[in-house]
Design goal:
The N and C termini lie far apart (27 Å). By secondary structure, this protein is α+β, with helices and mostly antiparallel strands. The model has no long low-confidence stretch (mean pLDDT 92). It has a single domain, classed as Trna Endonuclease, Chain: A, domain 1. It is built from 3 helices and 5 strands.
């Protein structure tokens, strides 16, 4: 997927999150382990969100591999340490296909 398509999906994801009552804290946080697309907060819970888009739901969701999830988790720990945070957190995914957005909470289960 091109960076432009990825940015479009992330923009749509941020709009969706804001409409759902989240506050977007940061986008595209990088560490030596990988990247987190969106970091948002709702209530007292920090959400580390992976955004995936594709031609259909299945092709997008299956791109969240065990390896990718491991990189997200390691990067989240770097973010928490750098920011000196001690809060509840969760890992989520937003699947963007055309105009439809599916929010999948707690993808680590």
């Amino acid at each position: 997927m091109s960076r432009a398509k990825g940015n479009f999906a992330e923009d749509k994801a941020c709009e969706f999150l804001i409409d759902a009552g989240f506050s977007v804290v940061e986008r595209n946080f990088y560490s030596r382990f990988g990247e987190i697309d969106i970091i948002a907060i709702k209530g007292n819970v920090l959400h580390f969100i992976e955004v995936k888009s594709g031609l259909d739901y299945e092709s997008a969701v299956y791109n969240i591999t065990k390896s990718k999830l491991s990189k997200i988790i390691k990067t989240a720990h770097v973010y928490m340490k750098r920011s000196s945070l001690d809060v509840d957190f969760v890992f989520d995914a937003l699947i963007v296909v055309d105009a439809k957005i599916e929010f999948i909470e707690n993808i680590t289960l």
